[in-house]
Amino acid sequence: MACFGLVVADDLTGATDTGHEFAARGLRTLVSVGAATAAEDGPPADVRVVDTDSRYVDPEVAAAAVRRVIGAHDASFVYKKVDSTLRGNVVAEVDAALDATGADLALVAPASPRNGRTTVEGYHLVDGVLVAETDAGDDPERPVDTSHLPTRFAGSSYPVVRLPVDRVAAGADAVADDLRATAGEGRAVVVADAVHERHLEALATGAAKSGCSVVYVGSAGLARYVKTPPPTADGPPSVPTRERSVLCVVGSTNPATLEQVRALHAESVVPLDLEAAIDDPGAASDAAASACAARLDDAGFAALVSAPDSDAPARALEAGRRLGLEGTSVRTHIAEALAGTVERLWHRDDDTPESLFVTGGAVASDVFDVLDAEGVLLSGEAVEEGIPLGCVAGGVADETPVVTKAGAFGSPGAIRKCAARLGGRDEFE
């Protein structure tokens, strides 16, 4: 499939928040999920965003997925989306993108100053804290053990060159000169400092001016400034404001999300029975679907939550141990129960939810899978920074308004804001 641009992401919420930066410029942007990764799948789009769902798989599997997706598309630029806290198979996937494109350079800038992510003297920080000392350093699947970008990329197959902040701050021409000089020495991974939005703009503009072929590597921040052709006449779909029922599925255990859950009215929250979900995900889905249906019928809003408090993950792991299950299996069963609840609600004999909110990348991917969705067409509107609005593309929930959110993103009232926008009301009681 020919497209203006291709974004390859390793999880769904990251795919949508990065794709939003292109949709916001009027480009028709499709985020593909699950099996819908082949070039022939999905409606036409200016920018195709593909979620390889590869953050926690083996590095070789992740690299193969990246190569496969890039090989299936004829794009004018390739953007390798990486986690803004450096989790996942970052090095293996960037090397694979450089291999698959044959580009001169990979320009790596994971900073997103609007979201508190900055890179200074090669060190990556979240709200001023070294990333390895944040929750990413305690990631249960694959903790981030270094905050130093050059060290993080030490295992790359390519030389790693640092582009310091003074050169980035000097502007696009200086960046272009440095990129040309680096490319003249051979293919390489360039890791760049960025503290302000203007630094990201200088990086993207400098790359375009350099004359080098570049794979852009970053979180949503750098995507905001990548140079693109003009949008097509179709443009992104609109999501009119009107009253709708809203189903929220909260699968993230990030502290930011837990705070957002606490800001919800208690009567709207449906806590997933964790012990039941770990023992029998199907039965837990049945019970949760019944409770959510009752709240949707009564108030038009239900929030299905896997971790209503900070102790919930520990309780889930303890329940798993009693059943002889390790942490990965526990998380898989909980995600299965959450997605199963959504599946049951969309196959009710009576009214299905009229809009959907999901937070937690892995859970979001599972939810779209049970809905048989091809993906999300982004509207170009964001409820908050990094929290985009779109419509489900394909499947049983086709054209349903949807918001996806990364676990670490958003203000304390973010979920309430998303529900209000989706539901077309000032507030849900």
From TrEMBL:
<dbReference type="InterPro" id="IPR037051">
    <property type="entry name" value="4-carb_acid_sugar_kinase_N_sf"/>
</dbReference>
<feature type="domain" description="Four-carbon acid sugar kinase nucleotide binding">
    <location>
        <begin position="247"/>
        <end position="414"/>
    </location>
</feature>
<keyword id="KW-0808">Transferase</keyword>
<comment type="similarity">
    <text>Belongs to the four-carbon acid sugar kinase family.</text>
</comment>
<dbReference type="Pfam" id="PF07005">
    <property type="entry name" value="SBD_N"/>
</dbReference>
<keyword id="KW-0119">Carbohydrate metabolism</keyword>
<dbReference type="InterPro" id="IPR010737">
    <property type="entry name" value="4-carb_acid_sugar_kinase_N"/>
</dbReference>
<dbReference type="GO" id="GO:0005524">
    <property type="term" value="F:ATP binding"/>
</dbReference>
<dbReference type="InterPro" id="IPR031475">
    <property type="entry name" value="NBD_C"/>
</dbReference>
<dbReference type="InterPro" id="IPR042213">
    <property type="entry name" value="NBD_C_sf"/>
</dbReference>
<keyword id="KW-0067">ATP-binding</keyword>
<dbReference type="Pfam" id="PF17042">
    <property type="entry name" value="NBD_C"/>
</dbReference>
<keyword id="KW-0418">Kinase</keyword>
<dbReference type="GO" id="GO:0016301">
    <property type="term" value="F:kinase activity"/>
</dbReference>
<feature type="domain" description="Four-carbon acid sugar kinase N-terminal">
    <location>
        <begin position="6"/>
        <end position="225"/>
    </location>
</feature>
<protein>
    <submittedName>
        <fullName>Four-carbon acid sugar kinase family protein</fullName>
    </submittedName>
</protein>
<keyword id="KW-0547">Nucleotide-binding</keyword>
